[in-house]
Amino acid sequence: MAKDPVRVLVTGAAGQIGYALVPMIARGAMLGPDQPVILHMLDIEPVAEALNGVKMELVDAAFPLLRGVVATTDAVEACKDVNIAIMVGGFPRKEGMERKDVMSRNVSIYKAQASALEQHASPNCKVLVVANPANTNALILKEFAPSIPEKNITCLTRLDHNRALGQISERLHVHVGDVKNVIIWGNHSSTQYPDVNHATVSTSTGQKSVRELVGDDNWLNTEFIATVQQRGAAIIKARKLSSALSAASSACDHIRDWVLGTPKGTWVSMGVYSDGSYGIQPGLIYSFPVTCEKGEWKIVQGLKIDEFSRGKLDATAKELIEEKALAYSCLN
Ligand SMILES: NC(=O)c1ccc[n+]([C@@H]2O[C@H](COP(=O)([O-])OP(=O)(O)OC[C@H]3O[C@@H](n4cnc5c(N)ncnc54)[C@H](O)[C@@H]3O)[C@@H](O)[C@H]2O)c1
Ligand SMILES: O=C(O)C[C@H](O)C(=O)O
């Protein structure tokens, strides 16, 4: 039997991630090749005409799964009955800025949009915040939309996770699809901790540890970590624009795995509210390793954390606590 369409909101849809993301959703890259979708696209009045242009292109592309498009500058209309909300709207950082430098412009958007989502989205709407500072925007959204279950509010660290897989695959000359179970801990910022201590590669003779195959702890503990932490800045330097196609693709991966489940024996990284796992202050939106089943994520428990990792987990948590205070000071 044909499935009912799922309503997917993309905010900031006239921007560069939006332009890469909406065709991916309309082609089934997010929810699967048999799942019809209705796209809700929100942006602001000054770019209303460009937003309408994106709608025209969606019509012109004749996507068989696309059952409707709402393009609007009205947050209430945009949020109406949506099942999934991808929050990309905001301002990207420019060369030389840290992600928290875009804080004051972006957190106020998330406070305002929390209410629109709370009042008008479908009650079990799943939310993914992409706009930076992603963890703190998600935290503000969670705190100002108390009736949305906290398990439904997440932020994107899957791009960092995919970047870590990419770096390992390049270093070992293996297919990226054969590398799994890296972890991004903490903030989507330069304090994030890309951890390969539990990561493996599928080989013709079974699963092998990434650390053993690389055989260079110094590279793993320094250059590898710094490359993943600084990749967003490196893309801005090269493109003069922040990452867009990789961000859009990773947002699809995040939602697909959350809704359809992670493969057996594989975890992914998602920014989710902390329940105190691994000693991280409860309530922060912190990136953890998670598995997903039947539309629910669960933090992977019981991983051994060595002293080097402990310091890194705590440092990125400390930054998130500081960002939270800064966000509230911007809102006052
Ligand atoms: N978490 C991640 O991995 C990740 C990766 C890449 C980029 N980002 C972030 O995603 C955000 C978007 O990046 P981009 O390159 O698409 O930027 P962009 O400037 O091209 O697009 C952002 C869009 O948001 C719109 N917007 C601004 N205020 C809005 C509001 N109140 N409601 C709805 N829309 C609004 C703008 O008009 C613009 O069209 C930035 O904050 C960027 O830093 C996050
Ligand atoms: O780094 C940025 O500001 C953009 C984005 O968060 C990224 O990681 O590419």
What's the arrangement of secondary structure elements?
Layout: E1 6-11, H1 16-26, E2 37-42, H2 48-60, E3 66-72, H3 75-79, E4 84-87, H4 103-120, E5 126-129, H5 134-143, E6 153-155, H6 158-172, E7 179-180, E8 183-185, E9 193-195, E10 200-203, E11 206-209, H7 210-214, H8 217-221, H9 223-229, H10 231-239, H11 245-260, E12 268-273, E13 285-293, E14 296-299, H12 307-331
Parallel strand pairs: 1-2, 1-4, 2-3, 4-5, 5-6
Antiparallel strand pairs: 7-10, 8-9, 10-11, 12-13, 13-14
Nicotinamide-adenine-dinucleotide is lined by residues 11-12, 14-18, 42-44, 47, 88-93, 109, 130-132, 134, 156, 159, 188, 242-244, 247.
The N- and C-terminal alpha carbons lie at a distance of 51 Å
Total helices: the number is 12
Beta strand count: 14
Q: Tell me about the largest β-sheet.
A: 6 strands, parallel
Helical content class: 40-55%
> What spatial order of strands do you see in the largest sheet?
3-2-1-4-5-6
Helix/strand structural class: alpha/beta
Percentage beta strand: 15-25%
The chain-level mean pLDDT equals: 96
